[in-house]
Design brief:
alpha/beta
């Protein structure tokens, strides 16, 4: 069933809590939700690292754009992978979505959350410094397409309230 509302798309660096927030907002508001990375894994029947190994990051970014386009037409809330803005096709798609929410978080917290996560090819064996460098390369692109930026140092309820207030006030 297709939704008549513009989807809320959660962007931000890996480990900020996009999936957790998306699930919370979905359950609280009886809206459909998809985690784009999980959707890609389901559709391709491979893990993200397996996809990276088979077709490289550029190939993954092409799949990401293809599946983002599908999901924009079928889900109310979409959480994206941290590197969604690295692919030009996805970046262009997101520039045309009005409800893009940038979920941000302190880099030290992110590092602790993701440093041992084997499902994140761009985080494997990274030092805090190199992870921070990657984060800094993405900040301007997140900022360019985000309708609003929120910090994940708030509770899920506070984040949801802030987002809904901003979306309904403009």
């Amino acid at each position: 069933m297709e939704s008549s509302i513009t989807p809320i798309v959660l962007i931000g660096f890996m480990g900020t809590g996009k999936t957790t927030l998306g699930q919370y907002m979905s359950e609280s508001n009886h809206l459909s939700f998809v985690d784009l990375d999980h959707y890609i894994v389901q559709q391709e029947n491979k893990t993200i690292p397996e996809i990276f190994d088979a077709i490289g990051e550029q190939g993954f970014r092409q799949l990401e754009a293809k599946y983002l386009k599908d999901c924009l037409n079928h889900y109310d809330i979409i959480s994206t992978g941290g590197g969604i803005i690295e692919g030009e096709d996805s970046h262009q798609l997101l520039k045309n979505v009005s409800n893009v929410i940038w979920l941000d978080c302190d880099i030290n917290i992110l590092y602790e959350r993701i440093k041992n996560d084997q499902n994140r090819p761009n985080a494997n064996n990274k030092t805090l410094s190199s992870l921070n460098d990657l984060y800094l390369t993405r900040v301007s692109r997140y900022n360019e397409i985000a309708f609003i930026k929120v910090s994940s140092d708030m509770t899920l309820n506070e984040l949801q309230t802030t987002i809904i207030e901003r979306l309904t006030s403009d």
